[in-house]
Write a structure and sequence with these properties.
This protein is of the alpha/beta class. The protein has 11 helices and 12 strands. Helices cover about 35% and strands about 15% of the residues. Helix 1 links the parallel strand 1 and strand 2. It is elongated. Bound molecules: nicotinamide-adenine-dinucleotide.
Length: about 325
């Protein structure tokens, strides 16, 4: 039995004239209210497969996998909408084959992720996470907490798209030199110097931050060989997608202090419970890049606008 947000049983016989919007993943109240203006909302149904039968629109974040199998239960699904950017949890080919349009909200979380990167970068350079943990354990060890400043350092940005270029602009204002590894086609920007060769790029960067999609050419882009090219005091930040850094190679590089530190917001499997958690020079956040109130509001607005546009076309 599928219920809408008012708890009404949506039995099949009375559904032909109403738009059914199934929200599979957690969504803020404001966004749900906006979506209710478009039709009847079914929020986090217990049986997602069964709810597909009557759905016109399926909305997901990153948790639900929109597989060929899930789509096979759909009878009148028109749109799969991803609240966010990455479409790696959506089988786009399966959707295309069934004439289902896939949409997302590409620009809404850019600033939230870029600000998180700046925050992580400064706190990693100053050992803020370590200092916090020590004080919570009643350790006052200021002499071993001598950090580094970001001004004058080189920030290497892998992927100079929406988020990468936003990080670049903010870091430039803070006095960093900006280089990027991003094969053409590229965003033209006076702030950035593109480096063609990945090894050279890695060798020049003090901080490396990753902002590429997870595709064949970026899977394990940062592997054992890449860590060998980095500076000894390099810091690597990944807020893009798990799987772009080889986590085994990262573990070895951080454990052996080949690099100074790493900070991760995304993981090959989430929730992440792997062995990187044992290391004191790897800092963690649980995929919160887009997790600001402002970004969530922008995502909700952009989502509703894009759905309306699709329905009108
Ligand atoms: P974007 O498409 O605007 O930019 C991606 C850039 O990567 C482009 O400039 C592209 O040319 C470049 N690129 C592609 N292949 C490359 C390669 N092999 N090597 C180097 N560069 C390559 O994407 P965006 O909006 O900036 O998002 C970047 C990443 O951030 C995505 O993976 C997205 O899923 C992720 N993201 C994470 C969060 C989070 O919560 N942590 C939130 C939003 C987005």
């Amino acid at each position: 039995m599928i219920n809408d947000t008012l708890g009404r049983n949506l039995s099949a016989h009375n559904l032909s004239h109403i738009m059914i919007i199934v929200i599979a993943d957690k969504m803020e109240e404001e966004a749900i209210e906006e979506l209710k203006k478009l039709g009847t909302v079914v929020y986090k149904p217990e049986n997602l497969n069964a709810s597909m039968e009557n759905a016109d629109i399926l909305i997901v974040r990153s948790a639900t996998q929109v597989t060929k199998e899930l789509i096979s239960h759909a009878k009148k699904l028109r749109i799969v909408a991803r609240a966010g950017i990455g479409l790696d949890n959506v089988d786009q080919e399966a959707c295309k084959n069934k004439g289902i349009k896939v949409i997302n909200t590409p620009g809404a979380s850019t600033n939230a992720v870029a600000e998180l990167v700046i925050g992580i970068m400064i706190s990693s350079m100053r050992g803020v996470q370590k200092a916090h943990y020590q004080m919570k354990n009643k350790i006052w060890d200021k002499k071993n907490l001598v950090g580094n400043e970001i001004e004058g350092k080189t920030l290497g940005i892998i992927g100079y798209g929406r988020i990468g270029s936003s990080v670049g602009k903010k870091a430039h204002v803070l006095g960093m030199k900006i280089i990027s590894y991003n094969p053409p086609p590229r965003h033209q920007d006076e702030l950035v110097k593109y480096i063609e060769n990945l090894d050279e790029f890695l060798a020049q960067s003090d901080v490396i931050t990753i902002h590429v999609p997870l595709i064949d050419s970026t899977k394990n882009l940062i592997d054992k060989k890449a860590f060998e090219k980095m500076k000894e005091n390099a810091i690597v930040i990944n807020t893009s997608r798990g799987g772009i850094i080889d986590e085994e190679a990262l573990y070895d590089a951080c454990k052996s202090k080949k690099i100074m530190a790493a900070a991760l917001d995304v993981y090959s499997t989430e929730p992440y419970i792997g062995k990187l958690l044992e290391l004191e020079n790897v800092y963690f956040t649980p995929h919160i890049g887009a997790g600001t109130k402002e970004a969530q509001e922008r995502i909700a607005k952009e989502l509703v606008q894009r759905i309306k546009k699709e329905l009108d076309s």
